[in-house]
Amino acid sequence: MTIHSPGATDHAGPSPNSLALRHLGIHTYREKVLFMRSDCHICRAVGFTVQSRVLVALGDRRLVATVNMVGPELLDSGEAGLSEAAWDALVAKQGDTIVVSHAPPIASLSHLRAKVYGHRLDDHAMREIMGDIVAGQYSDLHLAAFVTACAGDRLDTRETVALTRAMIDVGTRITWPQPMIMDKHCVGGLPGNRTTLLVVPIVAAAGLTIPKTSSRAITSPAGTADTMEVLAPVALDGAGMRRVVEREGGCIVWGASVGLSPADDVLISVERPLDLDSEGQLVASVLSKKAAAGSTHVVVDMPVGPTAKVRSPEAAARLSTELQKVGRAIGIEVRVMVTDGSQPVGRGIGPALEARDVLAVLKREAGAPQDLQDRALRLAGSILEYSAAVPHGTGLALATGILEDGRAWEKFVAICESQGGMREPPQAAHRRAFEAGFRGRVVEVDNRRLARAAKLAGAPQAPAAGIEFLAPIGTEVERGQPLFFVHARARGELDYAFEYLAGQEDVVGIAGEP
To answer: The CATH number of the domain where 479 resides is what?
Structure first.
């Protein structure tokens, strides 16, 4: 975040700490980096080194950046460069003059250090940390330390409530005139489980309000926002989201574009490369986004299986209790549905392939994935039963009727059009079968390794890439029969995925004769 401080850069003359900007075009994702020559006069005078945190001023705009050193091949004497994230934040132009100085101390780092050493953090500490994160004060190193210090079981319930409240407080919060606002979430870890795109139109068609904000992929081949984006725009701002919901009763948008719980988006950007998704942070992430979106009633899909994110009934019970406790503390009613997480849902793994499954169900096509349909109907039915007009035990039948008579499809098309227009999902340029090595019966599927292969094939960055899964548990297969197809944008990515698969045993486990 850029810090605005009008008038703070008035100088009688050129500052000795000034440098001319050269546009280097270096992308560092979110990290704001200042590139300086190792022999820069400012570094010698002030003592800046690699990884120093500095305050960069351009006119009345300010940001805190991390110093990286480069040689004279990239910068002339008296020049500096910025990463693209910093360049955009400062609205910089080639040749602009910046002033570099020591960054102000970050008070909340004392709380971070306390957490690293195992101390518990209260509401005040969490709020200070989240405030500094949203203000751009934390480097990626600081963020990685915080995420790691909170990983595993290192957050108790009080801390998780404090973290959730702090994430809500440092962002915007949407309010709605309706007394009940529905929502749905899946804890993840199950490829192809794209029920949201079915649940939202069913619930909205029933007359309830469901403003769904969704995430992009963290450690998976597709997030709900990635899949929806191949069908319609998802990067709506708050006003755009409100217009869609007021018109159609529901939406499916990317939460980061709405600005809800911005601290969560920053933390997710660090969790993704670390491949960390701890229980307390998961609860805070989910519920802070729900509260910020104005939700009052949430149904959580919790797949449980040996290669899902939640691997045992005991872990599911613990996480369910935590979600409900934290939900009550922040004023949200949470209902958890424990579901089968032993294998992928539907056939597609990857944005466009998952979108095709969703369309097949909504259009009532022959051969549409029954498991995806059944799971979505159960979730939608549970949400519908939050309404006083839907008696307990009748939600599933109501949801099924809305899907079968075409109202869900009509509502989905209307939502897509309201979000900017519906489009056809793309197709990959390359496809190759992964075949059974012998005859037998499929007895297990490794969700994690299938997801890994889909990511190596290019998903979600290449929307059409991924895996088309054809062999659910119980399938009888012959030697040489395709178990799944790998889809890729480029031949090299296809080969990369198959190199990985060649070194893996029992991605799809078959009981039979080798």
So the answer is: 3.90.1170.30
